[in-house]
Amino acid sequence: MSSAIMDPAGELSRALHRRGDPMSARAFLEVLQEAAGGSSAPLTAGEREFLLSHAGMSEEDLSEQGRAATRLELARDRFALDAAALEGALSTSEVAALLGRAEANVRRSRLSGDLYAPNPGDPAGLRFPRWQFTSAGGVVPGLRRIIPAFPRDAHPLAVARFMTRPHEDLDGMSPVEWLAGDGPVDPVVTLVEDLGYV
């Protein structure tokens, strides 16, 4: 399971340099470590032996450099997931134009649960995934009951996939198609609960 990134600090340093050196590679890794909850406790001898014997890991994987490479890879993966979840998402002003509403009304709709924007603290502003809007320029009904059925930490990409993939229990339609076609909300809520999201 040896990491493909042999020198994560060097690779990160080069990437930061290409972007104008906003901070040192070490400082950036410290920020990542802090965001991930700090460094993990050292492995016991038994844990180390188990990982080497049964998890396909090498001494290099368990070194500080290997662990840093893993943290960097996880941060990259998380960034890619977050970017994929918001790809094609609409800004508050775009939603306001689409729905013919004031921006303040759009923000109130998010607060009341009628619109879904999974990034409320993003300094770039709210981003509303496109799947919640119908082709006729309306809002998919029932979000106020469906979105809270997902766990608070459900990744927006998981929510998007669930809402846009066909389900046998919805006559082969996705929840978005079902709801946009005036299907009842209860079966969608039940599907979320039955799939173990709560």
Give structural notes:
- With about 200 residues, this protein is mostly helical.
- It has 2 domains: about 10-85, no CATH class; about 90-195, no CATH class.
- The chain has 11 helices and 2 strands.
- The protein has helices at about 10-20, 25-35, 45-55, 60, 65-85, 90-100, 105-110, 145, 155-165, 175-180, 185-195; strands at about 90, 125-130.
- Strands 1-2 form a two-stranded antiparallel ribbon.
- Helix 5 crosses helix 9.
- The model is unreliable at about 1-5 (pLDDT under 50).
Q: What can be said about the biggest beta sheet?
A: 2 strands, antiparallel
Number of helical runs? 11
Distance between the ends: 33 Å
> Cα-atom Rg, whole angstroms?
22 Å
pLDDT under 50 segments (min length 5)?
A: 1-6
Mean pLDDT: 79
Series of H and E elements: HHHHHEHHEHHHH
Give a brief rundown of this model.
53% of the residues lie in helices and 2% in strands.
Task: Please name the defining characteristics of this protein.
2% strand; flat
Topology, element by element:
Elements: H1 8-18, H2 25-35, H3 45-54, H4 59-62, H5 64-86, E1 90-91, H6 92-99, H7 103-112, E2 127-128, H8 143-146, H9 156-164, H10 175-180, H11 186-194
